[in-house]
Amino acid sequence: MLTRVGTAVDSDLGPIADLAARTFPLACPPELPREAIDSFIARHLSAVALQGHLAAPGHDLLAARGPGGELVGYALLIDGTEMDPSCADQIRHRPTVGISKLYVDPAHLGTGVAADMLDAITALCAGRGARGLWLATNVANARARAFYVKNGFLERGHRVFLVGGRENDDVVYEKTLLGLPGRPPSASDGVESGERQQPGRGA
Ligand SMILES: CC(C)(COP(=O)(O)OP(=O)(O)OC[C@H]1O[C@@H](n2cnc3c(N)ncnc32)[C@H](O)[C@@H]1OP(=O)(O)O)[C@@H](O)C(=O)NCCC(=O)NCCS
Description:
Elements: E1 4-7, H1 13-23, H2 34-44, H3 47-55, E2 59-65, E3 71-79, E4 96-104, H4 113-127, E5 132-138, H5 142-150, E6 154-163, E7 166-176
Parallel strand pairs: 4-5
Antiparallel strand pairs: 1-2, 2-3, 3-4, 5-7, 6-7
Helix pairs in contact: 1-3
Bound molecules: coenzyme A.
């Protein structure tokens, strides 16, 4: 892995907030008004807002760095279904971790940085005993959807996601971590056909 992924610290918050402001619009559907996007960025992606995640139990703000130490991406993980409890009935593997944010600098799209980040997230969460990862992304975000499916996520359903007061249609995805190092399989594991994960990149 060329990308180094680690827990963000205070000095990362400014650069991550800058990256978040530049990349959040890329995940939004074209019809969403710019004011709604800006409102979301100001409320949820400022350095102050991101700082709240550093101290919050069960939240992990991660910084991804390239070989020269430059910030190339960031991710936010939130244990369980806290990031959207309305999705809880769509999640089949527990303990689970929600990937609230996974964003790569546009200069590094298609370079493997995102896959490196997902590998690091998978290793971190499997090592802590998680049996699954889940996330949601806009129905129109074709690139992200292709990336998640390519990396073993399965579609579970939909949710409504509010951006600046506007309702958006998100697709909910889940990936099993069963079969990865980090915890022994147990008889209570609910494995669905074709879902047991292989070590490494996965499906
Ligand atoms: C989602 C994200 C992290 C994925 O990283 P990435 O570097 O783009 O991922 P990859 O290039 O490995 O995979 C994307 C796949 O989508 C494909 N793709 C690109 N544009 C596409 C489109 N318009 N429609 C369908 N597939 C598309 C690519 O060809 C690639 O597939 P391939 O490897 O089989 O060729 C990154 O695109 C990103 O940060 N996007 C902006 C923010 C965002 O949407 N984050 C996710 C919010 S949940």
